[in-house]
Each structure stands twice: as C-alpha cells, then as structure tokens.
Amino acid sequence: xxxxxxxxxxxxxxxxxxxxxxxxxxxxxxxxxxxxxxxxxxxxxxxxxxxxxxxxxxxxxxxxxxxxxxxxxxxxxxxxxxxxxxxxxxxxxxxxxxxxxxxxxxxxxxxxxxxxxxxxxxxxxxxxxxxxxxxxxxxxxxxxxxxxxxxxxxxxxxxxxxxxxxxxxxxxxxxxxxxxx
Length: 181
Hints:
Elements: E1 2-4, E2 8-10, E3 19-24, H1 41-54, E4 57-60, H2 66-71, H3 76-87, E5 92-95, H4 102-112, E6 116-123, E7 135-137, H5 152-162, H6 167-170
Parallel strand pairs: 3-4, 3-6, 4-5, 6-7
Antiparallel strand pairs: 1-2
C-alpha cells in the first residue's frame, strides 16, 4: 500500500497480467450543478455499477490530485473523495501524473502501467483526440443547471468500452481496500 499524508491510502500494487481502469474526473462526474464539490449519491451508485459490471479499478485524473504532485500531500477535498470511494468498496489505485494537459497525463500513466489492458475516461472538461475511443464525455459543468454528472447513458457507454465481467466474476469485483491507520 502507498501511504499518502493524512491517512489516505491508495493501492500501489501491480495487478496480475491485465486490468481495467477508470480514469476518474470528479467535478462534473460525481457531483452536479446543484451540489458542486459534493458526491451525488446517484452518481456514486452509477460509478459503482460500472465497477461491479467490469471489475475496473479507479485512477484519479481530476485536477484535484495536483496538490499531491505539487505539495506532496492531498487536499482535504480529495481525501474526502477517496474515503467515500473506498467506503463504497471502490478501489483507488493511483493518480495520473502532472502534465500540461489531461490527455498527456493519461497517456503517461498508461505507458507506466503496461498491465492495463483496457480503460475508460470519465470526464466533463477535456477533449482527448488521441484517446477518444476510450472517452465518455459528460456535459461540461460550465453549461449550467442542466449538468447532472454521471447518467445512465454514460454508465452503459463505459461498460461497453470496458467489457462486462462474466456473471460468476461480478461478485468478486468489489472488495474494500483496508485503510489501516
């Protein structure tokens, strides 16, 4: 386990030969226009469904992770998000590095982790022409009150990109990552 200051832990281990990951933005994906910076429970359930159906792990690609790379610690807001994801049984395995644009960050992470055989990007802000076939683009949070975050259609698109687990493996796909203080 990789310990990050303030008792936030993400898994730092390598996972077998192959794995699926979700590159997760936060704002505009897990929150809504009405409740910015707060995890919407419906959106969390939708994310959880993607993980249950596919067995994917989570890599934080949100700009909220920049405090880790710049200051060497996570913000209290990012800590809250990781804690909520972990409480829901979702496994956060890392952060994308700090680069000029998010697409470069994801490409760099993929180059450093050859064990990733498939991935999906959940994001509302960035165009990613080199990774477009893996991008589930949500409406931008900047468009106003119609932004609801992760919707059922996005879930279906993400599952289609990642591929469903066989039925007998779905019950194995969620496990809590212990937060041993």
